[in-house]
Amino acid sequence: MTSLCIVFDRLRTEEKMLQREADIIGCQTTMLDAKTVKINTETSGDDLRLGDVVLERCISYFRGLHVTAAIESMQVPVINTFDVASACGDKMIMTLRLKRGGVSTPETNFAFSTEAATDTFDECGYPLVIKPVIGSWGRGVIPIRNRDTLDAILEVRTVTDGPFDRIYYLQEIIENRGGDVRDIRVITVGGEPIAAMYRRSAGGFRANVALGGDPEPCDITPEMAELASAASDAVGGGILGVDMMEDYRDGGTTGDSQLVVHEVNNTVEFKGLAKVAARNIPKAMVEFAKRYARK
Amino acid sequence: MNCPECDAILSIPDDSTEGEIISCYDCGADYEIAGRDGSEVKLKQAETIGEDWGE
Ligand SMILES: Nc1ncnc2c1ncn2[C@@H]1O[C@H](COP(=O)(O)OP(=O)(O)OP(=O)(O)O)[C@@H](O)[C@H]1O
Ligand SMILES: [Zn+2]
Question: Cβ separation of A136 and B32 shorter than 8 Å?
Answer without folding.
Answer: no
